[in-house]
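Appendix B, record 7
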Amino acid sequence: MSAPRMNRVVEDFTANATRDKKIRLKDLRGQNVVLYFYPKDSTPGCTTEGRDFAALHGKFRRQKTIILGVSRDSLASHEKFRAKQEFPFDLISDPDEKLCKAFDVIHEKTLYGRKFMGIVRSTFLIDSDGKLRAEWRKVKVNGHAEEVLAAVKAL
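Structure tokens (predicted):
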């Protein structure tokens, strides 16, 4: 899969998601897609980000927009996280990092002086024709879901 480029159709992909779903990007045409990449299930920032998207889920739905969270965690971990937080949207498991690498969200990070490769919190807005219309990298959680919703409304 090649890296998505602004205002170009995003290459089709298929991925496993919660509730035994197979998500295929091409099947979502006709709706906007918010694809948000986050580092790890059940961590404070990722929980807040998911809750913020969940709180605005109805508003996204009225804009014909689907929200999908993506991390390298297993489907079992995603199912627990989704159920505990009552997320009304699905989470994609990307253990082989295919999607993460395609969207270029795996970068070197430092935590407590230790360097490692991890997901840099990032969000992508794909329009109903399958074109990448906006991207946010190195996302700060506070206010992010509202900013994405504003971008959806501006489409």
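Remarks on this record: Residues 44-55 form the longest helix (12 residues). Strands lie at 14-17, 21-24, 32-37, 65-71, 90-93, 106-111, 114-119, 122-126, 132-137.
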